[in-house]
Design brief:
With 150 residues, the chain is α+β, with helices and mostly antiparallel strands. It has a domain of 99 residues: Immunoglobulin-like (Sandwich), CATH 2.60.40. 24% of the residues lie in helices and 35% in strands. It is built from 3 helices and 8 strands; from the N terminus they run αβββββββααβ. Strand 1 and strand 2 form a beta hairpin. 10% of the residues are buried.
Length: 150
């Protein structure tokens, strides 16, 4: 290779390196900060420890539901704010809910909430209050507490 050709290649190679460095600097970066659940600003304890469901049936016709009794076990003496939801699911699909405003009806540890069968029928869209009709609409019941907005 002639010396004059080498002199032309050096500036060309330098320009190519500068172009690549400039292009690399123009790429935006994304910074992720990952933390474990509950490791944020403050932990929010769930006051509902467990719930027991007792299905009450008609004494003369045990195929008809009269009410659902939900006994709530709390990690504290009482709940007097927020909302308690009794939610119904069919598999993983949400079907309906019944809400209790705890600011108007506080509950204490061990209290039992009685839900009328007609309210469950309405919440899940069942045709009547027979066990067959109701349990065709849902197969899972959950208790969800939503605290007051801060």
């Amino acid at each position: 290779m002639r010396r004059s050709n080498k002199k032309r290649l050096i500036p060309l190679a330098l320009a190519l390196v500068l172009a690549l460095v400039g292009a690399a600097l123009a790429v935006p970066t994304i910074n992720l900060h990952i933390q474990a659940i509950g490791a944020g600003k403050s932990e929010i304890p769930n006051p509902v420890v467990s719930a027991t469901f007792n299905w009450q049936v008609d004494s003369t016709n045990p195929d008809i539901l009269t009410s659902l009794e939900v006994t709530i076990d709390l990690s504290q003496a009482s709940l007097n704010s927020g909302t308690l939801y009794i939610k119904f699911y069919q598999g993983n699909t949400y079907v309906g809910k019944i809400a209790y405003d705890l600011s108007t009806d506080a509950i204490n540890d061990g209290d039992t909430i009685t839900i009328d069968a007609a309210d469950i029928q309405s919440a899940v869209g069942a045709s009547d209050t027979t066990l067959e009709s109701l349990f065709n609409e849902f197969d899972t019941v959950a208790v969800v507490y939503v605290g007051p907005q801060q």
